[in-house]
Design goal:
alpha/beta; 9 strands; Rossmann fold; 193 residues
Amino acid sequence: MPAKLDKKKLIHPDLESVLFTEAQIKARVKGLGKELKACYGDSEFTIISLINGAILFTADLMREIDNPVRLDCIRISSYGEKTISQGTPQIMHSMTLDISKRHVLLIDDILDTGKTLSLVDGLIKKLKPASLKVCVLLDKQGRREVPYEADFIGFKIPDKFVVGYGLDFAERYRNLPCIGVLKPELQNPPEWV
């Protein structure tokens, strides 16, 4: 059973280390909001969020944007209960908004192998948006298997398995306010009930 977060402790007991604190994340999200404003000006755009991982990041980033925005989500499965991406990502639920001739911002929590974003990028481009930009919270370049680069990046990270702030392991740890490295001994298929 995973340990519960002790509010008095600075680090969750299941984390080996903290890469980014809650304050660092908030500051960077605010900075990304300014970068998006510089890119889009006052224009309307459509946000497509890859969930579940990007849900917290998307919500916080949207609060930093004063543009008119539309929101849709795509649910992708690529990790399951593993710490390594499992083959080809599977689309579990696709978007419903019409994005033809509209500016689109695709948001994901992490760019690692590049498979997921490459797949979704191709699907979106088939729908003929006016433009497509990609924003990721984390960029793990050391894991790239498919050439892919994001337009907006929160943080570049080393090749470590991270959780928190929406990122999970077997659907756990998403609620942590920081982003940290999960202890190696906990990176096995869970036996949690």
